[in-house]
């Protein structure tokens, strides 16, 4: 009886809080929120609803659309390129994310202190991020070129290889080569996110740990990592989403070849929709990709917000 009374009382309190919140809403508050809400509806919610609607139809560029129900989704089960592209995308994500995060973490530790020249190093590490992905891909495509690329030239000069390697023409070399380029380009972005988290940790904690005899690695384990968990979660989510949505670098550097071996899921959606003009099937793949991304993001946030 007492528990029921407490439950009813808590419900009344929640209702009162909601009523007070509604009463305190002013027209000025709505005016500030409304532009963002309208933009969100136009550029996110409407396209999302439209894509879901298209995924249940045969949607030609010209002509009448035909309702197919779940046929587009069933077709995914028997599409070998879809599964190959999905597997390759996850392989690429696993190859890029760990080294990018580890390097970014130690770079953030390195440039955290306000020492002379630190700002210059921060700018140098972040510089590749501001260069467009297409421009970076073209530059690195020249570096990897088997005929006149500087990478093969210096590897042969130092006697590491005897003959030129066709970096972009083989599945075994194209994925590591592109992954290296992405780690070089995007590590600075992850570094800035982690640096913001590190600067929020009080120096008094490190000073107390030093007085207790803690070494560098113990400070990292017992102070830095636990305090940095929300920031780590954000950095991982952004990194994984960026890797899953990889497109430009593979279009420029390999065009998905050889034999679709470097075709990512986004590249396959693009080819299906805008080269084969199967817009309904492409929409179905987009919905599946969105669900996968949502699950991955939820798992990462859940993991990084859990207590050690």
TrEMBL record:
The chain crosses the membrane at residues 27-49, 81-111, 123-143, 177-201, 231-252, 279-299. Pfam families: BPD_transp_1 (PF00528). GO terms for cellular component: plasma membrane. It is found in: Cell membrane. InterPro entries: ABC_transporter_permease, MetI-like, MetI-like_sf. It is a multi-pass membrane protein. GO terms for biological process: transmembrane transport. Residues 86-300 form the ABC transmembrane type-1 domain. The keyword Nucleotide-binding does not apply. Keywords: Cell membrane, Membrane, Sugar transport, Transmembrane, Transmembrane helix, Transport. The keyword Transmembrane applies. Belongs to the binding-protein-dependent transport system permease family. This is Permease component of ABC-type sugar transporter. It comes from Halobacteroides halobius (strain ATCC 35273 / DSM 5150 / MD-1).
